[in-house]
Amino acid sequence: MQENETNVTEINKAKQDLATKKETLDATYIDLNAGLNTMAQGLGTQTVTGSLQDKLDALVRITDGKVNVDIKQLTDGIAQIDANLSLIEATEAELNMGITQVEAKKAVAIASLTDPDLTEAEKATIEASIVLLDTNLAELNAQKEQLLAQKAGAIAMKQDLESKLAEANAGIDALRSSQATLQSGITQYNSGMATYEKGVQTLETKTTEAAPLSMMHNAKSIMATLNSKVKIMENNLSWSVKMY
Fold first, then answer.
1. What is the pLDDT of residues 200-224, one digit of tens each?
2. Of 58, 74, 78, 223, which is least packed with CB atoms within 10 Å of its CB?
3. What does pTM read for this prediction?
């Protein structure tokens, strides 16, 4: 009887422990599922279904897609701007060289005007060339200003894309970190569920094994009660015989 009481006590405690563990697992599931749903909304989708692991795997694929599309677009855009800036800087170098050459020619022309042996016709020709050189310089400087404006615009655009890329990368890193945290939680949850299910099976086995002992205990109790009643009846009968 002592063994049976011990088994019943152990089974009841196991039931209580399993119930507590199940409550904890259910709360964990709710938290993990909420985290996955929040991430799905942040990624612009609500179509992830299945188990916790299925949902996380789907969100990881969506994140990979964003890296392949959004991040790639930004990096490609920056690379294109860098290529354009290289062309602009090459053109700027050519313009600077042209401006230097024209300024040198103008300096030579101006210096030649100091020659006392120049005729009026030669002087007029030199002055006309200086005017032409000034015109060329004005055109070259205008082209350079326009080019510098394009360069400034390209640099500003590159800085904007780099800022967006940094934000995107930070967002992706945060997603990856959150996904890693969720993965750890899901792994622990699945492990806990496996332990819980094993505990349920063990409890079912113990309950099944304890049933015959309980029946034997009940049978012994019934027999003891019957024996007690028979004994009383025998005593009563014996007393009655003595009375006669």
1. 998 888 887 665 544 455 545 555 5
2. 223
3. 0.67
Q: What tokens were used for 120?
A: 């009026």
Start-to-end Cα distance in the chain: 43
Rounded to 5 degrees, what angle do the CA atoms 118, 122, 127 make? 110
What is the CATH topology of the domain spanning 2-243? Substrate Binding Domain Of Dnak; Chain:A; Domain 2 (1.20.1270)
21-76 pLDDT, tens per residue? 999 999 999 999 999 999 999 998 877 899 999 999 999 999 999 899 999 999 99
**Longest CA pairwise span in the chain (Å):** 182
CA torsion through residues 98, 104, 107, 112, sign? negative
The closest of 71, 60, 34, 14 to 199, measured between CA atoms, is 14
Q: Are 62 and 43 in contact (CB under 8 A)?
A: yes
Would you say 158 and 85 are in contact if contact means Cβ atoms under 8 Å apart? yes
Select from 180, 176, 190 the least CA-distant residue to 28: 190
> CA dist 2 to 5, 150, 227, Å?
5, 94, 21
Please state whether 91 falls in left (phi above 0), alpha (psi between -120 and 50) or beta.
alpha
Which is nearest to 1 in space by CA: 216, 222, 226? 216
Domain spans in the chain, listed from the N-terminal domain onward = 2-243
